[in-house]
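Input/output pair, single chain:
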Amino acid sequence: MGEYHIRTYEDRDYGAVRTIFSDGLVEHAPAAYWHILRCPQTHLLLLVITAVAYAVSASFLFSCGVVAALLVVGWVRMKGLWAEYVEAALANDLRDIRETYLEAKDSRFWVVTSGEEVVGMVAAVQPEDPSQRGAALELKRMSVAKSHRGRGLSKALTHTVIRFAQERGYKEVVLTTSMVQLAAQRVYEGMGFRKVKVTYPSLLAKLLQFHLYSYRYEIAGSR
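Output:
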């Protein structure tokens, strides 16, 4: 990696880590919105709204205006949902990174630096699923600053988590990512992670076919 260095998180990294996480997640909002626009359910809904608006007003221009307004409202709402998720994470595990990831058993938080600048991050923690605890560690909060992507940092950070889990006797590394995070999926699958489950964060997400992928990596030589 040359100019880059991976090390354990320090308190002075707090602001940079939270910014990288926020920026990296919010940038997926357009892809999520575009996915919703392509859904047949959305097409049907917009067609019905257009027909009703035209039946009420007898104006094609008015009908188009109603649909355009709904599209704008939908985009604003989508950005709001992503922002709410970010705020929840910042108020939860990223509020006190040291307590969550450095003081908890078999947990760790790393940053990757270029000179003195923090440009990426990843964490390992006990899985949220109780049935996986003791056998697996969960990879979380992977993010690399946009200007430093394409240089193998995500792979290096993932290897760091795998090595950490292996050194502590775990059999697997698990993670969850959304369907719109395509670059992350390519990295994980290229490193041997297997897609094992598809879930939906809400009933609305299921209706719109917006799903989350669960991945599993089996550590070679584990018992």
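The chain has a mean pLDDT of 91. The first strand starts at residue 4 and ends at 8.
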